[in-house]
Automatic annotation (TrEMBL):
Species, as recorded: Homoserinibacter gongjuensis
The protein, known as: ArsR family transcriptional regulator
A Pfam family matched in the record: HTH_20
Taxonomy of the source species: Bacteria, Bacillati, Actinomycetota, Actinomycetes, Micrococcales
Transmembrane segments: none
Record-linked CDD domains: HTH_ARSR
Length: 217
């Protein structure tokens, strides 16, 4: 299947996966700190970060400390769509596409999901599709089968890295759209290439807690 021009090509490189994993684990790291953690040259890290930011996966903030020279930049995973223009575009595109498909397929079962929940699922589905999977969504069971794994060559060498990054990306993608849908479990390698995403609906209390956490990131 031909890849679209907005696929997440950046994630196919192990070095970028490692960088994203470090940013997810410790949001706010500086470029030099990322270089130290990954063993990559700062110029290489900078080039990779440009790609990850252009794809809507990370964002940066300038850290003003009152020192001379150019202030350093801290890097964060994108947990709010308005933190990154490309992430915002993807959310808007996914929700518009999902609404169109539902109008064309009126009467299909959606497990009683409201519009916010449906838009979260829309955004996650397109994120997974853009990542190179061919997701199969069961909206009643709130499960998504992922196959084939486009990151299999990397996963064969470091499955823990690949699964950890994608689990957090699923969390972050869902958090970019206000709603109750949360990741409850990512089952890796039910077969050599098949993984399964299990989703659930958060309570009002947990939704408020998640919203507070997102506003601080």
């Amino acid at each position: 299947m031909a890849r679209r021009t907005d696929d997440f090509r950046g994630l196919t490189q192990p070095s970028r996966l490692r960088l994203l994993a470090e940013i997810q684990a410790a949001p706010g790291l500086l470029l030099r700190e990322l270089a130290e953690r990954t063993g990559l040259h700062e110029n290489t890290v900078r080039d990779h970060l440009v790609v990850l930011e252009a794809e809507g996966l990370v964002t940066h903030r300038t850290r003003h400390g009152g020192t001379r020279g150019r202030p350093p930049e801290s890097y964060f995973p994108v947990r709010r769509a308005d933190a990154n223009p490309e992430a915002a575009r993807r959310v808007e595109q996914a929700t518009r596409h999902g609404d169109l498909l539902r109008r064309m397929n009126a009467g299909a079962a959606h497990a009683g999901l409201d519009d916010d929940a449906l838009h979260q699922v829309d955004t996650l589905y397109e994120h997974l599709d853009d990542s190179g999977f061919e997701p199969e969504l069961d909206e009643v069971a709130l499960e998504i089968d992922l196959t084939p794994c486009p990151f299999l060559p990397i996963a064969d060498g470091d499955q823990e890295l690949v699964c950890r990054v994608h689990e957090r990306l699923i969390d972050d993608t869902l958090s970019q759209v206000p709603g109750p849908v949360r990741l409850t479990l990512l089952e890796p390698r039910l077969t050599h290439e098949l993984c399964r995403v299990h989703l659930g609906l958060a309570t009002a209390a947990s939704s408020e807690s998640d919203a507070d956490a997102a506003s601080e990131s």
